[in-house]
Amino acid sequence: MGKPRAYSLWLAIALASLVLCLFAVRSVGRLVLPPYMVDVRGLAEKAPFVFRGQVVRVSGTTLNTRPGPQGVFIATIETDRWYRGDGPAKVLLRFAYSDFAFQGHDCIDFRPATYWVVFAAEKDGQLEMIDDCVGALTVSPLLGSDLKSKDWLTQMEADFVAGLDDPDPDARLASIQRLGGLELPSSRDALHRVVETGSDAESKWAVYAALRTGDVTVLPRVKELLANKYGGGARPEEAIALELQSVTDPAATPDLIAILERASSDIARTSVLVALGEKLRDPRAVPTLAAHLSDPDRYARYDSLDGLKNITHEEACTLPREWKEDDVEPQISRCRIWWEQAGKFRDWPKN
User: Fold this and answer.
1) Spatial distance between the Cα atoms of 111 and 233, rounded to a whole number of angstroms
2) Within a domain: 317
3) Is 272 within the bounds of a domain?
4) What are phi and psi of 138, to 5 degrees?
5) Does the pTM exceed 0.85?
6) What is the extent of the structural domain holding 302?
7) Which residues of 191-221 are buried (b: 16+ CB within 10 A; e: fewer)?
8) Contact, 231 vs 255, CB < 8 A?
9) Burial bucket for residue 138 (CB in 10 Å: 0-12, 13-18, 19+)
10) What is the mean pLDDT of residues 55-73?
11) 43 in a domain, yes or no?
12) Could you read off the pLDDT of 119-167 as tens digits, one per residue?
C-alpha cells in the first residue's frame, strides 16, 4: 500500500539529486545532506560545544594513498571563536576518516591550514563532532567584530557576513551557504547585496540562501533562473528548485504560479506544486494545479491531484484511504473529468 507522500518530492528526486552532490551514498549507507543544505542553526543548537578555527596539525595521515578505512585521527585546531560552551585556544578534536565516506559516514577529512566551524560534544573525555559527516563545515578565515554578547547566533551571523568579503571565491561561497543554513531574516540585506553584485555563481547561491531565510522577494529572480535548462548535480539551480517546496508565505502564490508556468525541469515543477497544494493550499492555485493533472511527469501529476484534494476537498480528486500505486492514474483521470465538467466553471480567486 502506498502512503500519501509515496509520490512525494524526496522519493521522486532525493536519490537523483543528492548522489550527485558532495557526499554520495550506497544503499548500505545513509543519505547525507550536502553542506549547502545543512541546517547550521539546528546543528549548533544540538551541540554542547560550537567553535571555529584553523586546523594546524593532524596526527597520522589523512592522505588517500590506499583503499579502505584509514583510522582515527586527532586534529589540533587553533580556535578563534567559541559560540557555545567554552574552551582553550587550542582544541584536540578526535575524528575518523575513511575512503568509504560515500557510505555516509566518516566524511570529513581535516587538513592543516583549513578553517572550520565545528559542532562537538565530549565523549570519553575527548571532543568529537556530533555528526561524522556534517559535524564540521568549512568557513572563511575572516571574522566579524567581537559583539561581546551571549547571543551566539548573532555572532555567528556576523562572522559569516564578514566572510562575504574574503578574496578567496570558495570561501565567499561557503559564507553565502552558511548564512543560508542559519535561516535568519536578518541576513537578507547582506544576501541581496551578493545577488546584485556577486559573481554569477555567488548571485545564484545567494538567491538560494535568501530563500532559506523565508525571503520570497527573490522569487522573480528564481523565475528567470529556472526558466532555462540547467544540468544536474550540486548546482545552485537544483538547490533553488528543491527549496521552493518549503515556501510557506501566502504572498508567494502569484510568483510561484509564474515560476511553474515557465519552469524547465520536473524538479522545479514538482517543488512548486508541493508548495502550492500542500504548504499554502491557496484557492488561487486551483486552475494551475488542474492544468498540471496532465503534466508529463507522473510525480507532478500526483502532486497536482494531492493539492486539488487539499484545497477543493472534491471526492473526484481524493484517493481512497487504502490506496495503492495503481489507483493514482485512474484517480487523476477522474479529477481531470471533474475539472472539465464542473471545476473550471467555479469562481476561483484570481492572483
Assistant:
1) 25
2) yes
3) yes
4) -65, 145
5) yes
6) 1-20+232-351
7) bbebbeebeeebbbbbbbbbbbbebbebbeb
8) no
9) middle
10) 67
11) no
12) 999 998 999 999 999 999 999 999 999 998 779 999 999 999 999 999 9
Cell numbers found for residue 214: 523565508
Hey, what's the cell of 211?
A: 530563500
Residues 6+ apart with CB under 8 A from 6: 325
Number of domains in the chain: 1
Q: How far is CA 300 from CA 10, 219, 260, 296, 319, in A?
A: 13, 20, 11, 8, 16
Q: What are phi and psi of 188, to 5 degrees?
A: -65, -40
The residue ranking higher by pLDDT, 61 or 50, is: 50
* C-alpha span between 211 and 190 (Å, rounded): 13
**Residue 60 included in any domain:** no
Contact 230, 241 (CB under 8 A): no
Confidence (pLDDT) at 16? 40
Q: Which amino acid is at 100?
A: F
